Fold this sequence. Notes:
This protein has helices at about 5-10, 65-70, and strands spanning about 35-40, 50-60, 75-85. By secondary structure, it is mainly beta. It has one domain (about 5-85).
Amino acid sequence: RDIWDAPLLRTFLGPDGKTAFSVQREGEVHLVFSLFVDWFNPYSNKKAGKSHSVGAIYMACLNLPPDIRYRPENIYLAGIIPGPHE
């Protein structure tokens, strides 16, 4: 199953009251992005006594085919969140 199988995206209405993602006017592109956050230790070694955390905010374009949607070259790094010492 894919996100596009969900009734919400198929019935989501745009400002004109029409289905936002199925009908597009010439010259328009309607894109859907997912946003996700991942936290990690940049030093990758807690045993060495360095325990910091950094968050990365990523975006993926859900309009791409599922088999290439999450490839590194198709993921956009939207931001980095410096974390506290843990």
